[in-house]
Write a structure and sequence with these properties.
The protein has a single domain, classed as Four Helix Bundle (Hemerythrin (Met), subunit A) (Up-down Bundle), CATH 1.20.120. Helices cover 66% and strands 0% of the residues. It starts with a helix and ends in a 15-residue tail after the last helix. Belongs to the class VI-like SAM-binding methyltransferase superfamily. Isoprenylcysteine carboxyl methyltransferase family.
Amino acid sequence: PRSLCSQIAVRACFLGFAFGCGLLLSAGRSAWRHFGWYMCSLSLFHYSEYLVTSINNPRSLSLDSFLLNHSFEYNMAALSSWVEFTLEKLLFPELKQITWLSTVGLLMVIFGDCLRKAAMLTAGSNFNHIVQNEKSDTHTLVTSGVYGWFRHPSYVGWFYWSIGTQVLLCNPICVVGYALASWRFFRERIEEEEITLIHFFGEEYLEYKRKVPSGLPFIRGVKVEL
């Protein structure tokens, strides 16, 4: 429908504009240079979520594939990071000029996003932003590539990407807050997803679960009573 296409175009243009603004800030020598890195990272993450989904699983493609409206909590987390950065920049400007720390954060962001996109591409049509409750005819258990390293590489990537954005911004409060909130979210999400995967694949998934770690610290997934 034309209205849907226009809504997709508006979101894509908005993300492209944000990326361009981020590049301009990054190219300058102002105190906002690291925030420019953050803007580029954030806009590229959301745009590439839609792009890779359109390649992998076009049947599941929707406006939600941008993940811009992921949840109220996600939006509040983003807003809180902007507020912290601005306040600390005004009160403690030297805190926002630790280039080596921002570089570490940028490397975390790049690693996390690349790992997540690699997971999406490896899973192909099996990947979906929404946990599936019914097994489709084409649904297979993917254990190759990055799935041979971690059971949930897309979550591992998103976890370190989210924390990396706050290290990049030198936001000490949000670094702790993001780490705790992300860990709790993915612990619950992984348990929910693994119940479904055990239902779908039975012993095949249990064997995979025994051999490959979840990839996230102190998260072992759903407990299986033997």
